[in-house]
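Practice problem 4.
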């Protein structure tokens, strides 16, 4: 039996037996020293089961060193095409003259997904993302999957096709969802049409897809206890299948406060999940990494 068939049968078997597998995932590894410290501690204590590295960011070398020296950890690449913070920015990995559409007037990546979609060609996107993957390989990162910072690769069908192409070429799964009303609401109409038009192909190829992606179940919470309760509620509500919950861990230190207004929320994510096991008592949920659910 080939690998893709085995993956498909595994997913069917899990659903049939009512098993819930959760990829508890730390985003933005490599963004800053604060994010790295928190993410590494969560990985070291097995409090999260996956993370992904932002290759263009200033603190990528620290994240890469951890990944290189801990090859058993489930670490992917957080393919990055935006630089959203007010005073903390980064540019492209590829030569600037090859990806002019990805750069704003200040010489950094655009701040928003919409700006990227308005200015950058799919060819420029492919050039930059290939440069990011090759740099990760040169740094010794054994990446288990590819995902997308701020969902930019879902902004246009041709961007998503680049995403698919790179996943196939490098032999790793990409962040891809099964059809659902929630998934359709999360993507632009043109991308939804592309995904629906290719649904039969995805089934025929038996590519791995998540049953759901939880990106912000804590919206509107104002305290640590409220945030914990919202996460707990979302996890307990998961149905049989493979799901992914994205968190953004960091510390409420001067570095993180200087980068983003979400410093407090990132500190709460760290404090919530540094001892994540209570969330799974009585919830029939098993933590899993990408390499667990796709092999």
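Answer key:
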């Amino acid at each position: 039996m080939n690998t893709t068939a085995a993956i498909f049968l595994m997913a069917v078997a899990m659903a049939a037996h009512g098993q819930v597998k959760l990829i508890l995932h730390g985003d933005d590894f490599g963004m800053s020293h604060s994010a790295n410290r928190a993410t590494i501690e969560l990985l070291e204590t097995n409090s999260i089961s996956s993370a992904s590295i932002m290759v263009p960011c200033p603190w990528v070398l620290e994240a890469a060193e951890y990944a290189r020296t801990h090859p058993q950890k489930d670490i992917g690449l957080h393919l990055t095409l935006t630089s959203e913070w007010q005073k903390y920015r980064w540019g492209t990995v590829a030569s600037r003259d090859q990806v002019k559409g990805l750069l704003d007037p200040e010489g950094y990546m655009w701040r928003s997904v919409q700006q990227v979609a308005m200015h950058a060609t799919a060819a420029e996107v492919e050039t930059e993302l290939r440069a990011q993957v090759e740099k990760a390989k040169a740094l010794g990162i054994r990446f288990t999957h590819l995902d997308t910072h701020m969902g930019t690769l879902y902004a246009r069908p041709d961007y998503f096709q680049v995403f698919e192409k790179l996943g196939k070429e490098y032999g790793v799964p990409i962040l891809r969802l099964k059809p659902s009303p929630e998934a359709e609401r999360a993507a632009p109409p043109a991308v939804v049409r592309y995904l629906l038009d290719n649904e039969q192909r995805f089934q025929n190829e038996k590519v791995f897809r998540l049953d759901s992606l939880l990106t912000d179940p804590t919206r509107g919470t104002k305290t640590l206890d409220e945030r914990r309760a919202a996460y707990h509620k979302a996890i307990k509500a998961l149905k049989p299948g493979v799901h992914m919950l994205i968190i953004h861990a960091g510390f409420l230190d001067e570095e993180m406060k200087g980068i983003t207004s979400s410093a407090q929320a990132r500190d709460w994510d760290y404090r919530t999940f540094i001892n994540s096991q209570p969330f799974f008592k009585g919830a029939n949920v098993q933590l899993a990494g990408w390499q667990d659910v796709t092999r």
